């Protein structure tokens, strides 16, 4: 049972520290342009290409008409993106996993407060830190709290690529 708790606590600590990577991937997937947005973007590009062919000095009215069409489509595209990009959703996926995993670690710390993760041999002496490492257990034990602290600190030192 100790090894299972050890591995679970370590994995949970690493996932908690690097949960922003998970949130970014979910946000990237959510913010992927819809087919309507892709269509509007291609229309804008086509209109800009046709506008480049028209000289502004020689044919101002045609140039302005194309520019008004571009502005109208850009406004429609902006409205479509704003409907989809809700700030609550953005913040929820950015910080939600970190909050949930942190809360889970607190609950597990309370639940496993009396269960040592690792019990060391009596020949190993952890003095002067034995009280800090093994609290609330006896000597030569590593508590769940201390293991979470060490795992989280190690996870913060490891830089993962986004």
From TrEMBL:
Name any GO cellular component annotation.
GET complex
One GO biological process this protein is involved in is: tail-anchored membrane protein insertion into ER membrane
Coiled coil spans: 63-90
Gene3D superfamilies reported for this sequence: Helix hairpin bin
Pfam families xrefs: CHD5
Q: Which UniProt keywords apply?
A: Coiled coil, Endoplasmic reticulum, Membrane, Signal, Transmembrane, Transmembrane helix
Q: Which family does it belong to?
A: Belongs to the WRB/GET1 family.
Q: Name one GO molecular function term.
A: protein-membrane adaptor activity
What does UniProt give as the signal peptide span?
1-19
Q: Does the keyword Membrane apply?
A: yes
Q: How does it sit in the membrane?
A: Multi-pass membrane protein
In terms of PANTHER family, this protein maps to: GUIDED ENTRY OF TAIL-ANCHORED PROTEINS FACTOR 1 (PTHR42650:SF1), TAIL-ANCHORED PROTEIN INSERTION RECEPTOR WRB (PTHR42650)
- InterPro entries assigned to the protein according to its UniProt record, in alphabetical order: Get1 (IPR028945), Helix_hairpin_bin_sf (IPR029012)
Q: Where in the cell is it found?
A: Endoplasmic reticulum membrane
Source species of the chain? Diabrotica balteata
Protein's UniProt name: Guided entry of tail-anchored proteins factor 1
């Amino acid at each position: 049972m100790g090894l299972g708790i050890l591995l679970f606590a370590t994995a949970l600590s690493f996932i908690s520290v690097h949960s922003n990577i998970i949130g970014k991937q979910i946000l990237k997937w959510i913010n992927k342009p819809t087919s309507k947005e892709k269509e509007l973007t291609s229309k804008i590009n086509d209109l800009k290409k046709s506008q480049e062919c028209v000289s502004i000095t020689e044919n101002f009215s045609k140039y302005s008409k194309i520019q008004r069409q571009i502005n109208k489509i850009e406004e429609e595209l902006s409205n479509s993106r704003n409907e989809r990009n809700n700030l609550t959703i953005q913040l929820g996926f950015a910080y939600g996993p970190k909050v949930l995993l942190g809360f889970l670690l607190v609950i597990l710390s309370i639940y496993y407060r009396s269960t040592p993760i690792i019990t060391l041999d009596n020949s190993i002496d952890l003095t002067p830190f034995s009280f800090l490492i093994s609290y609330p257990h006896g000597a030569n034990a590593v508590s769940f709290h201390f293991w979470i602290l060490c795992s989280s600190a190690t996870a913060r030192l490891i830089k993962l690529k986004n």
